[in-house]
Design a protein that fits this description.
By secondary structure, this protein is an alpha+beta fold. The chain has a domain at 75-238: 2-Layer Sandwich (Alpha-Beta Plaits). Helices cover 47% and strands 18% of the residues. The chain has seven helices and eight strands, in the order H-H-H-H-E-H-E-E-E-E-E-E-H-H-E. The chain has a five-stranded antiparallel β-sheet with strand order 3-2-7-1-8. A three-stranded antiparallel β-sheet has the order 4-5-6, covered by helices on one side. Helix 3 (70-103) runs antiparallel to helix 4 and helix 5 packs antiparallel against helix 7 (217-223). Belongs to the UPF0749 family. Keywords: Membrane, Transmembrane, Transmembrane helix. It holds the Pfam family DUF881. Residues 1-21 are annotated as: Disordered. The chain crosses the membrane at residues 35-54.
């Protein structure tokens, strides 16, 4: 077929293949978020939500102490100060005993060893104990006090410096177990039912204050419908004993002898 005179077709223009840079620019343009009004509103909501969460967390962290009265804060500070003083005194006593053992005679070393053995016997529950302390009675008519709650009471007593504790007829030591059992609590296999009586030997005023600290165990017990009563005494006796169990796995580490 002959071409018509005066009519010419333009040659086809072949577009060069896209380079790698061109491909990445196109992909970025597609993935780039569009600056629409909806996106801006969503970003503003996210910003406000983050600010609200941060403010709530900060207020929650500060509320614990800021909500307390000045007298409550003074009581907390006194308890912390007394605990620190007790630990400092114990550290000085141990340091003095160590110096006597290193520099003293055999008689002094034997006497110190016996005193240390007696102290360990009290802590391990293999010896009776006597001294000042408190008695805490918990009336629980609704049987709402559980083993974890009673364990919390024990931990607060220990934090306040209790050196020997007896709950009902059971001596409480580091390995003592607490288990819920129907309308009562098993302590190392001994079934206890309300009212629960905790006897603790230590600094009586410090332990009594710790039991009534705001947000502490007494407040928890009242929230469960139980009634705690604390009595201080200058002469308590704990007679219940624990049988010392031989460790199955733990072995003492030999004390290194000082080089001459």
């Amino acid at each position: 077929m002959s071409e018509q005179p005066g009519r010419h077709e333009a040659p086809a223009v072949t577009e060069p293949p896209p380079t790698a840079d061109t491909a990445w620019r196109r992909l970025g343009a597609v993935a780039r978020p569009k600056a629409t009004r909806a996106n801006a509103f969503a970003a503003l909501l996210a910003l406000l939500l983050g600010f609200a969460i941060a403010t709530q967390v900060r207020q929650t962290q500060e509320q614990g102490l800021e909500s307390l009265r000045q007298s409550d804060l003074v009581g907390i500070l006194d308890n912390v100060t007394q605990s620190q003083a007790r630990l400092d005194t114990e550290a000085r006593t141990l340091q003095s005993t160590r110096d006597q053992l290193v520099n003293g005679s055999s008689a002094a070393a034997l006497s110190a060893a016996r005193e240390r053995l007696d102290a360990l016997g009290v802590l391990a529950g293999t010896l009776p104990a006597r001294g000042p302390g408190i008695t805490m009675t918990i009336d629980d008519p609704g049987h709402k006090v559980t083993a974890p709650v009673l364990l919390d009471a024990l931990e607060e007593l220990r934090d306040a410096g209790a050196e020997a504790v007896q709950i009902g007829p059971a001596r409480v030591v580091a390995s003592t177990s607490f288990t819920d059992a129907g309308n009562g609590i098993d302590i190392d296999g001994t079934r206890l039912t309300p009212p629960y009586t905790l006897t603790a030997i230590g600094d009586a005023p410090t332990m009594a204050a710790a039991m009534d600290i705001p947000g502490g165990i007494s407040e928890t017990l009242r929230g469960l419908g139980a009634t705690p009563r604390v009595t201080q005494s200058q002469d308590l006796r704990i007679d219940a004993l624990q049988t010392l169990r031989e460790p199955r796995y733990a072995r003492p580490v030999p004390t290194p002898t000082p080089s001459s």
